[in-house]
Design goal:
With 159 residues, this protein is an alpha+beta fold. It has four helices and eight strands, in the order αββαβαβαββββ. A hairpin with a 7-residue loop joins strand 6 and strand 7.
């Protein structure tokens, strides 16, 4: 049998301890990476990690009047409605009737709005050859009725 000196035994034990320490450190790192990747728990505190809060979208209170009205609708039907004091606009999809009313009155001086009617067009499916199928965007239309005696809106200034 081969006899091993005490110094060699101590060196072997130290090497094993060092190897074990490296292994444990590597395992800790793997667990931490897994925990952070899966967002389940913090390995140090053993507590659940709360989901990160996404940045909020623009709130309707923060919209200015020039953000509410996108553009006027220009069709034959809407041009005939102008004669009866009704104007139609594409507006922000989340705009409310009071916001639309305030936006029209602030954009066009001397205009007094009697009522606002709104409608939302639902997104429609579109199939494109060679591309992934998608949907059209949501659009909101507003028909604004002016009070009698109110100043008219000039859709084509200078004509």
């Amino acid at each position: 049998m081969i006899e091993i000196s005490q110094e060699t035994k101590e060196a072997i034990a130290a090497a094993k301890a060092e190897k074990r320490a490296r292994y444990e450190k590597r395992q800790e790192k793997r667990i931490k990476e897994y925990a952070l990747k899966k967002k389940k728990f913090d390995p140090e505190t053993k507590k659940k990690i709360k989901a990160k809060v996404r940045p909020t979208r623009q709130r309707m209170e923060d919209l200015k009047y020039y953000d509410v009205i996108i553009k006027p609708m220009m069709t034959e039907k809407t041009m005939t409605m102008v004669e009866s004091g009704k104007y139609s606009f594409f507006v922000h999809p989340k705009a409310t009737k009071p916001q639309i009313k305030n936006a029209v009155q602030s954009m066009f001086e001397g205009v007094k709005v009697a009522s606002v009617n709104t409608m939302i067009t639902a997104p429609k499916k579109r199939h494109r050859r060679g591309f992934a199928p998608g949907k059209t965007t949501i659009k909101k239309k507003a028909i604004v009725t002016l009070k009698p005696g109110s100043k008219e809106i000039e859709l084509f200034p200078g004509l």
